[in-house]
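Look at one record.

>
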Amino acid sequence: MKRALVAAVVALAMVFTMGTVVWAADKEGTVKTIQINERVLTLSDGTQLYWTEAVEVPQEMKEGTKVKATYEPKGGKMVLKKIEIIK
């Protein structure tokens, strides 16, 4: 009985832990618009990427620039973790 209870507790802990894992993803595209004040970058395919103060956005990035963005879903938005210009 004790073993079954311990096994159930361990299984539940694993399920709850796995539910909070967030995976980062990469996306390449061309910058369509940059809204500096709102911290929103829109790619030509309509993808909107949001950034925080922690992310370094290249100064030379402008509309038409090809980029590779690493982001993670957070609060229903795609939040940038890193962005690079593709040359």
